[in-house]
UniProtKB/TrEMBL annotation:
This is 5'-nucleotidase SurE. It catalyses: a ribonucleoside 5'-phosphate + H2O = a ribonucleoside + phosphate. The keyword Amino-acid biosynthesis does not apply. Nucleotidase that shows phosphatase activity on nucleoside 5'-monophosphates. Its main location: cytoplasm. HAMAP family: SurE (MF_00060). It is found in: Cytoplasm. Belongs to the SurE nucleotidase family. Its cofactor is a divalent metal cation. Keywords: Cytoplasm, Hydrolase, Metal-binding, Nucleotide-binding. A divalent metal cation binds at D8, D9, S43, N96.
Amino acid sequence: MRILITNDDGINAPGLEVMAEIAAELAGPRGEVWTVAPAFEQSGVAHCISYSHPTMIARLADRRYAAEGSPADCVLAAIADVMAETPPDLVLSGVNRGNNSGENVMYSGTIGGAMEAALQGLPAIALSQYLGPETADLADPFETARRHGARVIRRLLDHADWTSGDDFRLFYNVNFPPVPADRMRGIRVAPQGRRQGTRFGVVPYTAPNGRRFMWIAGGSQQAPARPGSDVAVNMEGYVSVTPMRADLTCHRSLDALSQALEGGEPADLRAGAGTS
């Protein structure tokens, strides 16, 4: 198996080393692990691509490259350039330092890398390590992902839907719980949730020269979410697995909205165009 790994924490992030270990175990002695990761941290860039400016890429070692761009840029660089003649069989994004459960999904560059791989028609999995009070004093905060990562991925490869005929191919979001590895309770397939009473915000700051700046600040990662959601099962000590795709359409709203908006005659719409 030929595996491409990337992340959003940067080429020197410890989570990428964990990802490389997991990928090497999966690929086996006859497989290959390729790394194309951001030269600098790209947390929070979501599915951003460097559309309006070029991206420099540098070869650091055999099968190891750093790109001055986002995780999605890195996947594109790998597929279209670095690995163009020998494309990957699987793309793994992570292991992120911190969770990508709940609302964090929408901001995550780790998710963005996996999403781009899926858009390119490749099997892809995003992996993140939830952190919390029980992991704060561990010598290795990634120990749960390190110990259980390969097993979770193998089960996904064996049992998940990798041949969906939809326009948008599925990819998978995996979050390891914020507990030591020996306290991980199992795997739960869970929908994306949302933490209650917390959200991203800003912390304003005035520089000595009088100019105004701000820091983006996240909310509490320990806040509760809907029972059975990814956040909830993570907090209960389970690995969450969430099938995802790039289609943001709210399908359950289509029929009712169509009946409400498509029933009017064109003359009715023209008559109302000049009203205020």
